[in-house]
Fold this protein.
Amino acid sequence: MKKLFIAAFVIGSLTVVTSCTKDYTCECTVLGFTGDTTLVDVSKKEAKDYCESQDAAAAIFAGSCKLK
């Protein structure tokens, strides 16, 4: 029973670690042009923070960015 618990814990831990990060896309539109930036192996919070920072910069030129 103890071996089963340890095996389940290890598999569960690996699942949590690997599912925390993935690829996200931040789509920005500025002056009528649209471009995508692919963020590789990042957490959703990191992707959201990046996209929000780009949105603030794009707003200067009446543009916007959103996380896809």
